[in-house]
Design goal:
The protein is mainly β and 179 residues long. It has three helices and 14 strands. The strands form four sheets. Strands 1, 2, 5, 6 and 9 form a five-stranded antiparallel beta sheet that branches. Strands 13-12-11-10-14 form a five-stranded antiparallel beta sheet, with no helix packed on it. Strands 3-4 form a two-stranded antiparallel ribbon.
Length: 179
C-alpha cells in the first residue's frame, strides 16, 4: 500500500478508509470504549439476542461479528488503534491491509438498524473464488460450488471446464479477493 498516486504528493497510506481490526474474544465493547475515548471513528455492529443462564434470561447486545471492530482511519496511523488494549491485529490479505468500501459499512449499518433477524455465516460460501493452498492441487484456482460435509468441497476449475470434488480441510482453501 506504499504506492503513490500519480500527480499527488500524498500516498494512499494517508487516505482515510474503513479497516477491520481483530480483537481479543469478548473485548469488542471495551475496544469500542477506548476508541471512542480517543476520538477515533469506529463502528461496532451489535444485535440484540436472548441469552439464557441457569437462573435467568436476558436480552443482551452482542457483536454481529465476533472479535471484529471497524475503524475509519488512515493506514499510516494504524498504530494508534493497534496499541488499544484488546486489539490484536488489522485484517490483511497477502500481508496487505484490506480497506473496506464505505458502501459495505453503510449496508451493515442499514441491516442492523432494521428489525430483520441477521445471521452471520463463517467460512467459505458457494460462489466464492478460491485457491487451493496445499496438497497435489496446490496453486489451482477455482470457484466453490458447494460444500459437502466438513472436508469435501466441489470446486469448478474454469481452465479445464470441469468440476472436481476435493477432499481437503477448509484451512487448505483460501478465498481470492475479486475487487
Amino acid at each position: 500500500m506504499a504506492e503513490r498516486r500519480s500527480g499527488q504528493g500524498m500516498g494512499i497510506e494517508s487516505e482515510i478508509f474503513w479497516y477491520a481490526f481483530v480483537t481479543k474474544p469478548r473485548h469488542e465493547k471495551k475496544v469500542r470504549y477506548y476508541l471512542e475515548s480517543a476520538g477515533i471513528p469506529q463502528f461496532l455492529p451489535l444485535r440484540t439476542t436472548l441469552r439464557q443462564w441457569k437462573d435467568r434470561r436476558r436480552w443482551v447486545d452482542v457483536p454481529l461479528f465476533s472479535c471484529y471492530i471497524f475503524v475509519k482511519y488512515a493506514f499510516n496511523r494504524r498504530w494508534d488503534v493497534l496499541k488499544v488494549p484488546g486489539v490484536v491485529r488489522i485484517v490483511s490479505f497477502s500481508d496487505k491491509p484490506a480497506p473496506i468500501h464505505e458502501g459495505e459499512i453503510q449496508t451493515i449499518m442499514k441491516l442492523i438498524s432494521t428489525e430483520v433477524d441477521v445471521q452471520v455465516c463463517n467460512g467459505l460460501l458457494p460462489g466464492m473464488d478460491v485457491k487451493i493452498t496445499s496438497g497435489p492441487l496446490a496453486g489451482l484456482n477455482g470457484r466453490l460450488l458447494e460444500q459437502r460435509g466438513s472436508h469435501r468441497f466441489v470446486i469448478q476449475v474454469p481452465v479445464i471446464g470441469k468440476s472436481i470434488l476435493v477432499d481437503v480441510n477448509e484451512n487448505c482453501i483460501d478465498p481470492i479477493e475479486t475487487r
